[in-house]
Design brief:
Layout (H helix, E strand, L loop, with lengths): L2 E3 L21 H9 L2 H25 L4 E5 L5 H8 L3 E6 L2 H13 L6 E5 L5 H7 L5 E7 L11 H8 E12 L1 H11 L2 H8 L20 H10 L3 E8 L16 H11 L11 E7 L1
Parallel strand pairs: 1-4, 2-3, 2-5, 3-4, 5-6
Antiparallel strand pairs: 6-8, 7-8
The protein binds S-adenosylmethionine.
Length: about 280
């Protein structure tokens, strides 16, 4: 399919001096830090399990491949695997560097035929999709994007416009409770005291992968309710791995860690301490 690369400005939204965060300058760093090891493997294992089961079921019910959109896709691993399974996928990111890496993976997976690429802020996607007569999707993936947006709630209106009537949303976002809990375990009480009086976690380090504007689970749930979604499932991503200061016992076996993360990712109360939360919801 065609390439639809357009100018992707680094900063696209200004609100109270906040701006959306393009990963253009930290694409290599992100790839290595987030997906270069076990952390990324756990993240992908949980998302694959949650999403592929739903996609298979929906695709069988509809008797056709699904039409899927991935916004803020980054390296787009899940979207590429879905394309390799035969679904039609639209991949978007504000960062050309991130999508350049995703394109290499798509070629390796021989999945390019089913993918269209849109380098632009998601806020400009509507215009570009309309020009191609592409409007509605059976499933929208929005993973680890919310916490990097200047105005995260605005993305809910975008989903409303672009999901089919029975469409589903796979929303994965950074869990601010995990930040507090990890710092409690590490004894970083001064940091927690300081942040108590600050609006958000504005990171000073330009390379930091700790989100500046995390959104609490309760807030995301209230948006989903206001927009008439029904939750199909919720999982926690990395519910114990990041909290363990000592790599002892089963922690020495990466496959065992993934197996246990998968098991506890859907169990109360552990899942609510995941570094990220995944909500699959339909309308
Ligand atoms: C933390 S990464 C997540 C990437 C991928 N979804 C994942 O889960 O691995 C956030 C991505 O959102 C992109 N992004 C930030 N603001 C955006 C916007 N307004 N529209 C589209 N993408 C955006 C960044 O460039 C970055 O690639």
């Amino acid at each position: 399919m065609d390439n639809k690369d357009s100018q992707a400005p680094d900063v696209i939204a200004q609100k109270d001096q906040r701006s959306d965060r393009s990963f253009d300058t930290i694409a290599d760093h992100f790839e290595k830090k987030v997906y270069g090891g076990l952390k990324g493997d756990i993240r992908l294992a949980v998302l694959r399990r949650d999403i592929f089961a739903y996609v298979n079921q929906m695709s069988q019910k509809l008797g056709r491949p699904l039409h899927i959109l991935d916004v803020g896709a980054g390296l787009a691993q899940i979207a590429i695997e879905l394309a390799a399974q035969g679904h039609t996928v639209v991949v978007n990111d504000i960062s050309a560097n991130m999508l350049a890496k995703a394109k290499v993976s798509a070629e390796q997976a021989q999945a390019t035929e089913n993918i269209s690429w849109y380098v632009c802020p998601y806020q400009q996607l509507e215009e570009q999709l309309a020009a191609e007569n592409v409007e509605k999707f059976d499933l929208i993936l929005c993973h680890a994007l919310l916490e990097w947006l200047a105005e995260p709630v605005a993305v809910m209106d975008f989903f409303d416009k672009h999901l089919t009537d029975n469409g589903a949303l796979s929303l994965c976002f950074y869990n601010p409770a995990s930040f507090d809990y990890r710092n409690l375990i590490m004894g970083n009480f001064n940091l927690l005291d300081t942040l108590l009086h600050k609006d958000d976690n504005q990171a000073d380090n330009k390379k930091s992968l700790t989100p500046n504007h995390p959104v609490a689970k309760q807030e995301v749930e209230s948006w989903l309710q206001q927009h008439h979604y029904q939750t199909l499932l919720t999982s926690g991503l990395r519910v114990f791995h990041d909290y363990s200061p000592l790599k002892r016992g089963g922690h020495n076996d990466p496959e065992a860690v993934i197996r246990m993360e998968l098991r506890y990712s859907q169990q109360e109360p552990y899942k609510w301490l995941g570094r990220y939360l995944h909500i699959l919801a339909s309308r």
